[in-house]
């Protein structure tokens, strides 16, 4: 099934169980309260009605018999006729609990033994619900004492069947059960749909993440959502695009490094073989070959230094060692270092500030940044153009910038110009580390590297750092 399948089943099942369980408990609680209310309404209402009738009948009978000095046995017929109610049997019992008369006309030989009779003699009234010992019918019995002048002379007892009430109650229970079952079925269907819709983006994200982990960098989440999942899917797609772009730049970087290493090594190897097999007495040829070998060796050293810097940045071991130094002196040394390259293209350099600046920074790293910025300006300037160099101090910050008169940079390239491995031109020299390393150097000085350009009107690159980092 795989991780995605397990996640799908796990999340869906948990959501389904939680939702259905919560709603089921709510329904059961509601039905319990409803059933309790219905039971109370039907059964307690019947008990109260029968009990009130029994009490009223007893009170009226007591007054009547005391007023006329009638005996219980003499008034059996009158009591039954006057106080009987439809659908209920009326019984008259003497003080010993013997059954004297019944509205049904049936008087068993055995003395009736029911809890309501005993309770009525003891507490003044008694109620009993149970099954009739002979018929098995579910009945309700209420007994109330009949009193003489000074003592209890008997009981008046009312018995009614609960079968009809039971049938009605069972019908209501069945209806409620069916309604609850239908509600649960609807809840289950809605919860299943809800769980499926909720887990769908999670499953899609999981599957896409697994593909991405396997190197399928073209993977994208195509589902459209209207909540936080849309933000998540958009972020995932952005991440995948960046990974693809980084992978592409990494491959280009490896290719560039291979090319950059091969070119000087080929020159070194070629001239080494020429010198070994050539005429050692030819001083001019020997000097030319050794000069090329020296230049290519320096080029290799520079490339290796860039790679080492990149490695240090990657593992977090790159550090700076700030000291106070003359920025003007360092800048002039860099200009002199690149003077030959400048002259080859007929580039003029215009210094637009004579302000003397002492910086507290890592001189070697700042020199590295200056070389990179000035070298780029010379490299991408049009022949016989001018490179302008400016710097100023304001609000405890130092700003340096170099402006060339080259062709400028396309907007789509400008935003990535200081990204690792990025090169504006596929066939340009270098491996795409220069500006990225400069950016990190300036950031270690708590400053900011900037590059501004409009296509066709040159480029301005520079940095701003605190005077004391």
UniProtKB/TrEMBL annotation:
Keywords: ATP-binding, Cell membrane, Kinase, Membrane, Nucleotide-binding, Phosphoprotein, Transferase, Transmembrane, Transmembrane helix, Two-component regulatory system. The keyword Magnesium does not apply. The chain crosses the membrane at residues 20-42, 172-195. Its EC number is 2.7.13.3. It is found in: Cell membrane. It catalyses: ATP + protein L-histidine = ADP + protein N-phospho-L-histidine. The lineage of its organism: Bacteria, Bacillati, Bacillota, Bacilli, Bacillales. One of its GO terms (molecular function) is ATP binding. Residues 196-248 form the HAMP domain. Residues 256-469 form the Histidine kinase domain. Its main location: membrane. InterPro entries: HAMP_dom (IPR003660), HATPase_C_sf (IPR036890), HATPase_dom (IPR003594), His_kinase_dom (IPR005467), HisK_dim/P_dom (IPR003661), HisK_dim/P_sf (IPR036097), HssS/ArlS-like (IPR050398), Sig_transdc_His_kin-like_C (IPR004358). This is histidine kinase. One of its GO terms (cellular component) is plasma membrane.
């Amino acid at each position: 099934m795989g991780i995605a399948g397990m996640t799908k089943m796990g999340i869906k099942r948990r959501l389904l169980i939680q939702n259905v369980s919560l709603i089921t408990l709510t329904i059961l609680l509601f039905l319990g309260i409803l059933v309790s209310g219905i039971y109370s309404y039907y059964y307690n209402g019947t008990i109260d009605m029968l009990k009130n009738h029994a009490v009223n009948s007893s009170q009226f009978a007591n007054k009547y018999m005391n007023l006329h000095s009638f005996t219980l046995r003499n008034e059996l017929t009158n009591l039954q006729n006057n106080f009987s109610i439809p659908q209920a049997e009326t019984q008259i019992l003497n003080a010993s609990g013997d059954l004297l008369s019944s509205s049904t006309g049936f008087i068993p030989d055995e003395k009736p033994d029911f809890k309501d009779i005993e309770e009525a003699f003891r507490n003044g009234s008694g109620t009993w619900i149970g099954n009739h010992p002979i018929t098995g019918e579910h009945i309700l019995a209420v007994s109330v004492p009949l009193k003489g002048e000074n003592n209890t002379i008997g009981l008046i007892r009312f018995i009614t069947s609960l079968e009809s009430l039971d049938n009605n109650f069972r019908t209501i229970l069945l209806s409620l059960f069916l309604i609850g079952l239908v509600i649960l079925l609807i809840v289950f269907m809605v919860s299943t749909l809800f769980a499926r819709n909720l887990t769908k983006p999670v499953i899609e994200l999981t599957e896409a993440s697994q593909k991405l982990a396997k190197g399928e960098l073209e993977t994208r989440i195509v589902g459209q959502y209207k909540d936080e999942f849309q933000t998540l899917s958009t972020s995932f797609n952005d991440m995948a695009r960046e990974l693809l772009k980084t992978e592409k730049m990494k491959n280009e970087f490896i290719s560039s490094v291979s090319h950059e290493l091969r070119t000087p090594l080929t020159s070194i190897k070629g001239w080494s073989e020429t010198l070994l097999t050539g005429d050692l007495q030819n001083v001019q040829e020997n000097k030319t070959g050794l000069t090329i070998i020296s230049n290519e060796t320096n080029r290799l050293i520079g490339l290796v230094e860039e790679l080492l810097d990149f490695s240090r940045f990657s593992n977090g071991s790159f550090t700076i060692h700030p000291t106070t130094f003359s920025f003007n002196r360092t800048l002039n040394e860099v200009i002199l270092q690149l003077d030959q390259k400048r002259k080859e293209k007929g580039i003029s350099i215009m210094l637009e500030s004579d302000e003397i600046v002492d910086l507290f920074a890592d001189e070697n790293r700042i020199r590295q940044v200056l070389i990179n910025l000035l070298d780029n300006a010379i490299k991408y300037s049009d022949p016989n153009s001018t490179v302008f160099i400016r710097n100023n101090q304001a609000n405890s910050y130092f700003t340096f910038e170099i402006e060339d008169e080259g062709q400028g940079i396309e907007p789509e390239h400008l935003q990535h110009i200081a990204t690792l491995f990025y090169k504006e031109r596929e066939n340009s020299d270098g491996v795409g580390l220069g500006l990225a390393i400069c950016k990190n150097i300036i950031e270690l000085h708590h400053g900011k590297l900037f590059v501004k350009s409009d296509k066709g009107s040159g480029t301005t690159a520079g940095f701003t750092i605190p005077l004391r980092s």
